[in-house]
Amino acid sequence: MRVFVFCAVLFVCFFTFFNVNSLPRNQNSWADKPFDFYNLSARSNNDLTIDDGFIVNTNPPKMAYPKMPNMCSNCICGVGRKTRIVGGTTATIGEFPWMIAMSKHGQFHCGGSLLTKRHVLTAAHCLEGFDKRHFEVFIGKQDFDKSSSAVIHRRIKSWTVHEDFNTYNLDNDIAVVELDRSIPVGGAIRTACLPENRAIDYTGSLATAIGWGRTTEGGEVSSTLRKVELPVLSDEECDEAGYQKSRRTTNMFCAGYLEGKRDACSGDSGGPLLVEGPYGHLEVIGITSFGRGCARPRYPGVYTKLTNYLGWLRDNLDGECICPSAK
């Protein structure tokens, strides 16, 4: 009996110790404290934390959906003003005309990408557990410290979080937001391009992450939209990083530098990771999902692999078409 009681007490202590940091936390709960070495953080301003000692991947990888979303015939995607985050630089006005800013309770919360005139692509962890009435959506926003008549404001009608989203390891970290009113597309506002080839391997490609996230770990959120170039890493390189293999699934990939240098950071969640397509347009290949700290050695950023979700997107855009790239 004594042995049984001792084991029961030991189990409760173990569970409490390893699970205490695995709940969602708002910014105020950690903003003035250093990041715990044993915690991963999702990259919204309301960071989810994941404890290394208590994760089991309960969602086995699923086969990719086979179908592409419907294409429009009167618009093009992925084209902004041509110009040739941590370690990043300020984006030029109009350079990424599909970039969405989402605020919650009047404070910047997450990024996103305009996919259709009514739909926004973002990360599931930016929305899960929150009330849509507290959100506002802005497109055409460049600097939060400056007002502009070019900024378009919308409310959220509804959102769809992936049905297999795992709040513990952030598998299937993808969601679609439906706006209350459509956004006029063309001119200063464009939609983002999705990958046209589901089988392409982006390993070694130089990608661009954009967002209003923190410019240093524990620092302030940027008032201006920033960009940073990051190499897409192979699965083998990602395996060399400090993340447990059980945490990363085939629905994720890594981008960044194993030695640190540059990275996305807290507040960049939901924003796109972009590569240049064959016709000079930019394609969204990833959604900023999570990382440990910002630009830490051995911990590149982890992104939702968008090519795995083209069919899911098609089924959740309410029949709306997406703009093709210019050919």
Automatic annotation (TrEMBL):
Domain of life per record: Eukaryota
Alphabetic keyword roster: Disulfide bond, Hemolymph clotting, Hydrolase, Protease, Serine protease, Signal, Sushi
Alphabetized SMART domains for the sequence: Tryp_SPc
Catalysed transformations (reactions): Selective cleavage of 103-Arg-|-Ser-104 and 124-Ile-|-Ile-125 bonds in Limulus clotting factor B to form activated factor B. Cleavage of -Pro-Arg-|-Xaa- bonds in synthetic substrates
EC number assigned by the record: 3.4.21.84
Main EC class the enzyme belongs to: hydrolase
One GO MF term: serine-type endopeptidase activity
Peptidase S1 domain location: 85-318
TM helices/strands, residue ranges: none
Listed GO biological process terms: hemolymph coagulation; proteolysis
Tagged with keyword Phosphoprotein: no
Signal sequence range: 1-22
Name this protein carries in UniProt: limulus clotting factor C
Organism ancestry: Eukaryota, Metazoa, Ecdysozoa, Arthropoda, Hexapoda
